[in-house]
Amino acid sequence: MFGPTATTSTVKGGTGTAGTTTTTAPPPNERVLEDLDSAALAYAARIADQPPSGRQAARDDLVRFALPFAGRLARRYRGRGEPLEDLEQVARLGLVNAVDRYDPERGSFTAYAAITIVGEIKRHFRDRTWGVHVPRRLRDLILEVGQTTAALTSELSRAPTIAEVAGRLDTPQEEILAALESAAGYSPASLNAPVGGESSAEFGDLVGEWDNDLESVDDRVTVSGLLHRLPWRERRILAMRFYGNQTQAEIAARFGISQMHVSRLLSRALTWLRQAMLNEAPPPWHTSPTDADPRDLRVTTRRTGDHVLVELGGEIDRDNSHRLRQTVVEAVTTGRPTEVVVGLGDVPLLDATGIAALLAGQEAARSTGVQLRLTGAQPYVRHALNVAGLARLMD
């Protein structure tokens, strides 16, 4: 064991001398410092010829002997917002690391242990105590500002101003203000801290206010998806009315219809959106004959003997391409025709889903041995069909 040397004394009594030996401890007010360098050298000599499994006892003795030294280093950093017990635990961890890494050929164990323990304590402050990331330059300046403020308060008998602190440290006032603001990030208040009293309110309940835009995010996302289910004209009217701030008269003039008709279309679209948002599955949209849009898909099928003519009109997109697929496939597979002609003369727009529908019809025609032809395609549609590899089906 490592420790202070015991002293002996001889007690005399009566007619003889009694050789009673007692151990005298140092007076309570006398501070005994550990000779860590000698203890470390003795530890190194003790484990020199020991296998790794036999060094544990010597290691524990040296760590136990140096614990007061680690405690003194930890107490230097008390009063900085961390419990002393935590600092002592961190210091002891640094002491264990110093003992495990000690090499007597590199110099004094006391100096090495002090550097290792202090470094572990500073790392604890850097990694565990700051609520936000603050540059090291500002952290050092925060300590200097605190010490200078305390010194000036004692000298002036009042709190010093920012200019006085900056003058003492020879630092611009902007950096002093930045340091004071950053100091608030050392130990930020928890949003879950109770406010006090008998209420169950927390500190976070008092911060900020209700954000109506944030509360309506779900509704906005839902409406955005439902708008794509409406016909093109209704979508356009809603956009012009609520995003373009146009009057019903201006919208009516744009579409060539009456203002009363615009009012009915708006009311019907809004009613459908309201019902769709309140139900798990959106209700179907029923189009009346008077509401037909020239851009809607129109399909006419005529059979003459073994020949079938399918005439299309309007734009073909993802909302109606399923009708095109169903019509062409049924025309090819029903009644064993020899030829099916698809007229595209009144189709101004054909997107990828429409091309996919025609490709499905081509595959059905190939499997049944029916000849499929595309006629009257406008330039834009013809170009899309060429890119899709359907040029050989066109006249």
Question: How would you describe what is shown here?
Answer:
- By secondary structure, this protein is of the alpha/beta class.
- The protein has four domains: 32-129, Four Helix Bundle (Hemerythrin (Met), subunit A) (Up-down Bundle), CATH 1.20.120.1810; 136-183, Arc Repressor Mutant, subunit A; 227-285, Arc Repressor Mutant, subunit A; 298-393, STAS domain (Transcription Regulator spoIIAA).
- The protein is built from 15 helices and six strands.
- Strands 3-4-5-6 form a four-stranded mixed beta sheet, with helices on one face. It has a two-stranded antiparallel sheet with strand order 1-2.
- Strand 3 and strand 4 form a beta hairpin.
- Helix 1 runs antiparallel to helix 2 (56-75).
- The radius of gyration is 45 Å and the shape is elongated.
- The relative contact order is 0.04.
- Residues 1-24 have a biased composition (Low complexity).
- Keywords: DNA-binding, Sigma factor, Transcription, Transcription regulation.
- Residues 297-395 form the STAS domain.
- GO terms for molecular function: anti-sigma factor antagonist activity; DNA binding; sigma factor activity.
- InterPro entries: Anti-sigma_ant (IPR003658), MlaB-like_STAS (IPR058548), RNA_pol_sigma-70_dom (IPR014284), RNA_pol_sigma-B/F/G (IPR014322), RNA_pol_sigma70 (IPR000943), RNA_pol_sigma70_r2 (IPR007627), RNA_pol_sigma70_r3 (IPR007624), RNA_pol_sigma70_r4 (IPR007630).
